[in-house]
């Protein structure tokens, strides 16, 4: 009897694990900030609550350095985001979603000829939306636009590819 209980629990955990795993996505792509005016790369992870329209998104955007050779100034930026996501409309091929959450901007400036660089950390929030097109269950192109205030105060555009697990 005890073995039957253990076997039932093991199958239940296996089933639950497979259901949760199907809702996890990770990916990367290209990003562009309208104020910083430099492209960059982003990495992203999503967890969709099973059988619900809600999810959690964590992402990091790295922007290529912005340099002014005449002034000898180099600027670097990276943004970290933690968002809640809600899928408004979706079918077997296309999801339309909105998202909003917290943003942390890490910025630094270096002036040539000086040993020190200045760094700043600013907190803000972002709100936006996007689409995901499901080519296959594990291959999902996505595009997203959001407005981020706080240190960034700009529109950010992300275009990339997600992989389902």
TrEMBL record:
Residues 17-151 form the Outer membrane protein beta-barrel domain. SUPFAM superfamilies: OMPA-like. The keyword Signal applies. The keyword Signal applies. Keywords: Signal. This is Outer membrane protein beta-barrel domain-containing protein. It comes from the Bacteria. Residues 1-21 form the signal peptide.
């Amino acid at each position: 009897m005890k073995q039957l209980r253990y076997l039932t629990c093991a199958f239940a955990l296996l089933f639950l694990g497979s259901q949760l795993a199907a809702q996890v996505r990770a990916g990367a792509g290209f990003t562009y900030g309208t104020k910083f005016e430099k492209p960059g790369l982003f990495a992203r992870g999503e967890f969709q609550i099973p059988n619900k329209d809600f999810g959690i998104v964590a992402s990091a955007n790295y922007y290529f350095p912005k340099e002014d050779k005449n002034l000898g100034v180099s600027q670097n930026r990276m943004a970290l985001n933690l968002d809640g996501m809600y899928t408004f409309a979706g079918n077997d091929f296309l999801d339309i979603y909105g998202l909003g959450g917290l943003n942390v901007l890490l910025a630094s400036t270096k002036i040539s000829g000086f040993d020190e660089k200045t760094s700043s950390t600013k907190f803000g929030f972002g709100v936006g939306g996007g689409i995901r097109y499901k080519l296959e269950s594990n291959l999902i192109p996505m595009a997203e636009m959001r407005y981020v205030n706080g240190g960034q105060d700009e529109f950010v555009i992300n275009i990339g590819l997600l992989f389902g697990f």
